[in-house]
Design goal:
8 helices, alpha+beta, four-stranded antiparallel beta sheet
């Protein structure tokens, strides 16, 4: 099924300007549809099938967009904020125009894998505790981690602090290095309470000094992405997440 819409709406959705700005582009003869200069910004186009170019540059329309980002520290995981920079500020306007939103949250000082998507159902499923999609974090903490901590995480922790009370589900703690001054570990959790990983370590008397999300389900952060960098996900990566979320692949709708 095609996506038929006005040309000016399509251009605006693709981040090429406001409605009035893209109309000016059309009037200037800079937009072509099917190889011919468009004269009417209100003409109907099939966004998924009609070739559209701006100044000879092909414009690619996708009904659904999925982005993998290596979230940097110091940036909010939010759609917008009047005072602070958000992860959406790191992306071209196209993504907000197409309804992309962060799937879940990472704390402001936490780095690592963040999915930004226009597929609300997929986003909800991968963050829902009911689906038990595992998230793996690399954590550095002050002080020495021991096998007692591993056992405590595996048994589940009772959290009672200034941010509230809850029983954290059993989690996997794999110690990578342990010293009196600092330890490093991987933590796998299947829920996402407020500051959960930090609060779990705090319950064991340890303060997290660095935290980075490494994977969501079977999807790992691309090591080629430096903090603040992003790229669109491949169909194979999206299929991995859809499988984790218990969804049928939507590859037929992605292009």
């Amino acid at each position: 099924m095609g996506d038929v819409m006005r040309l000016d709406k399509l251009l605006s959705m693709l981040g090429e300007g406001t409605r009035s700005e893209v109309r000016a582009l059309v009037r200037a003869g800079r937009v072509c549809v099917g190889g011919r200069a468009a004269r009417d910004a209100g003409m109907q186009v099939d966004a998924g099938r009609d070739p559209v170019t701006l100044d000879g540059r092909a414009l690619v329309y996708k009904r659904v967009r999925h982005v993998m980002m290596n979230k940097p520290g110091g940036v909010l995981t939010a759609a917008r904020d009047p005072r602070q920079r958000t992860v959406m500020d790191l992306l071209p306007p196209l993504y907000a125009a197409m309804g992309c939103m962060p799937a879940g949250r990472l704390d402001k000082d936490t780095e690592g894998l963040l999915i930004v998507t226009s597929d609300g159902q997929l986003a909800h499923r991968i963050i829902s505790p009911k689906r038990e999609v595992g998230k793996v974090y690399l954590a550095r903490v002050d002080g020495l981690l021991t096998e007692e901590d591993v056992s405590a995480f595996a048994a589940g922790l009772h959290i009672d602090d200034g941010d509230g009370v809850f029983d954290a589900r059993a989690a996997e703690l794999a110690i990578l290095s342990a010293a009196r001054e600092e330890s490093e570990a991987l933590v796998r959790v299947t829920e996402g309470k407020y500051h959960q990983v930090k609060r779990m370590f705090a319950a064991r008397g340890r303060q997290v000094t660095y935290l980075k999300r490494m994977s969501i389900g079977a999807l790992a952060l691309d090591p080629a992405l430096a903090p603040g960098q992003w790229r669109e996900m491949t169909d194979e990566e999206v299929a991995l997440l859809e499988s984790e979320a218990g969804l049928e692949s939507k590859s037929a709708l992605r292009n």
